[in-house]
Amino acid sequence: MFEFINGHVHLVGRGYVVIEANQVGYKLLASTRCLELCSQSLETSTQLRLLCHLAVSETAHTMFGFENETERTLFRRLILVNGIGPTTAINLLSSLPPDAMMRAILEGDVKELIKMKGVGQKTAERLIVELRDHLDDMLAGDLATGDPQTDSAHLSDLTRVLTELGYSQQLANSSAERAIQELGGDCDFQDLLRCALQS
């Protein structure tokens, strides 16, 4: 629904930022590193663009903000792990830089993962088992070599269509990501949709 927000930082709080865009204040939960960027923007009174993810639950609609596509994509893969919700995922991103987290998962480094706040032995092992085969493209920089705007637009559109067809938000997002990885973001949308439905 929301791809990014471009505006001026109005307030940086503990764990969140408020960005004013077109006379509307948007509250986004964000990682510590992203909030540091927001604080710099507030001090210099410069505009800031944050990528977004809207998490919808029975009790709330919560917006999350990210400084780049790598952080947002890792967040979206973290919330697919059993037992990890959006708030936990953003806290994990505050505990360990995305590159370090991905390397630890790929290398099966439990000791590094349990350094993150709220992560014990079982959670660390679950992260490794469920994400190890889904991070190679990110660490290799495949996301950066493609067209991130095109990929993000297709991902958003595919996820929306799949949820309208009755799929859960998590399943729709993971299927859309898998289709884009297999066929590429510049592929025809209908082909991407067919691939997502097959997966």
Describe this structure in words.
The protein is α+β, with helices and mostly antiparallel strands and 199 residues long. It has three domains: 4-66, Nucleic acid-binding proteins (OB fold (Dihydrolipoamide Acetyltransferase, E2P), Beta Barrel); 69-139, DNA polymerase, domain 1, CATH 1.10.150.20; 146-198, Orthogonal Bundle (Helicase, Ruva Protein, domain 3), CATH 1.10.8. The chain has eleven helices and five strands. It has helices at residues 32-44, 69-78, 86-95, 98-106, 110-113, 121-131, 136-139, 142-145, 148-164, 169-183, 189-198; strands at 4-13, 16-21, 24-30, 47-56, 61-66. A hairpin with a 4-residue loop joins β4 (47-56) and β5. α2 crosses α3 and α10 crosses α11.
Short description, anyone?
The chain is α+β, with helices and mostly antiparallel strands.
CATH architecture designation of the largest domain: Orthogonal Bundle
Strand line-up in the sheet with most strands:
1-2-3-5-4
Content-based structural category: alpha+beta
Q: Give the CATH topology of the largest domain.
A: DNA polymerase, domain 1
Counting structural domains, the number is 3
Share of helix, binned? 40-55%
Shape: globular
What is the beta-strand fraction? 15-25%
Q: What's the CATH superfamily of the largest domain, by name?
A: 5' to 3' exonuclease, C-terminal subdomain
